[in-house]
Structure formats: structure tokens, C-alpha cells
Amino acid sequence: MVHLWNHSTAFPDAASDNAWKNAFDDLILSNEGQRAIVEIGNLYPVNPSFAPPKGAPPFKSVAKKALPINWEKIKGNRDEIIKWFTDIVQK
């Protein structure tokens, strides 16, 4: 199975070191990180110059089948969504 990944990274409040967070993002977005995402994680890379995982269809063909996202609805319900997500994660 190949997973889509939108490169959203989340860190706990205890990880207050922004230098560490930035270094992690830099690693993930680097050529080395993109290769690891594809080869080890079996994920589509965020950098379109990298090929998809072995045996996976091109990203454009997969993206066409993705569920539509209503960004305005998400924006309008931001606080409710954050509370819902926080309640799930804290269980």
C-alpha cells in the first residue's frame, strides 16, 4: 500500500525547540529525506522531481481520485475541528 502524505508535521508542546523542528523539516524536504520517504516509508514524495514508490501509479493519477476538500468549511469550523482532534489525541 502506498500512502499519500501532505507533509503536515505536528510536535507536542514539550518540543519547544524551534531549531529542532526546523532541522526536522529541512531533513524531510532534503533529497536524502525525500528518498527515505519513498524507499523506506513507501509514501509519495512532496517533491515532484522524485519518482513515486516502486509499483505506484504517478501521483497525478492518484490525486484525481482524492476526495474533494471543502477548505471554506474547514476554515469556518476551525475551533470545532481542533477540539475534536485534541479530544481524540489526548485519549
If you had to describe this structure to a student in words, what would you say it looks like?
This protein has 91 residues and is mostly helical. The radius of gyration is 16 Å and the shape is extended. It has one domain. The protein has five helices and no strands.
Ordered list of secondary-structure elements with their pairings:
Layout: H1 18-29, H2 31-39, H3 59-63, H4 71-76, H5 78-89
Helix pairs in contact: 1-2
Question: What are the key terms here?
Answer:
single chain; mainly alpha
Short description:
The protein has 91 residues and is mostly helical. It is built from 5 helices and no strands.
Number of helices: 5
**What is the total domain count?**
1
Beta-strand portion reads under 5%
Fraction in helix: 40-55%
Instruction: Encode the helix/strand succession as letters.
Output: HHHHH
So what's the overall shape?
extended
Measure the end-to-end span: 28 Å
* CA-based gyration radius: 16 Å
Weakly predicted, low-confidence segments: 1-5
**E-strand count:** 0
Structural class: mainly alpha
